[in-house]
């Protein structure tokens, strides 16, 4: 075998192995992301929103917040991040299916996380349940 052909063969093998290692690493990091279910807020008069109770979070000090899921372009395509938005709990509805909250910004522009596998924090990257809907 000629030396040039040997060098090209080794280079090709090296790049093929690096591509495989990259694909496996990206796939593994994606599978390790926490999964979330999505919900939507409904705007009601007076600058308030109805949200499902499952989307309402509380921190250690008793403050309420929701996690909006924001899409960003990443190095391997679209990535989704949770953004923490503080809200004020106004009241529960009689049915218990929705709660009324007030926030300093529109909650209807982005979907919110309503079910998750583990506690989430703002800025954390997430993935969706396979049906992009309710948690199992």
- Distance between the terminal alpha carbons, to the nearest Å? 58 Å
Helix and strand string, N-terminal first? Answer: HEEEEEEEEE
Q: What's the overall geometry?
A: rod-shaped
- Unreliable spans are 132-136
Radius of gyration: 22 Å
Major sheet characteristics: 9 strands, mixed
Number of strands: 9
Q: Whole-number average pLDDT?
A: 81
Q: Count helical runs.
A: 1
Structural class: alpha+beta
Bin the strand percentage. 35-45%
| Fraction of residues in helix | 10-25%
Topology summary:
Layout: H1 3-31, E1 35-39, E2 42-44, E3 48-51, E4 57-58, E5 64-74, E6 77-92, E7 99-103, E8 112-116, E9 125-128
Parallel strand pairs: 1-9
Antiparallel strand pairs: 1-8, 2-3, 3-7, 4-5, 5-6, 6-7, 6-9
Structural description of this entry:
The protein is 21% helix and 40% strand. It is of the alpha+beta class and 136 residues long. The protein is rod-shaped.
Quick structural gist:
This protein has 136 residues and is an alpha+beta fold. The chain is built from 1 helix and 9 strands, in the order αβββββββββ. Strands 1, 2, 3, 4, 5, 6, 7, 8 and 9 form a 9-stranded mixed beta sheet that branches.
Task: Fill in the keyword field for this structure.
136 residues, alpha+beta, 1 helix, rod-shaped
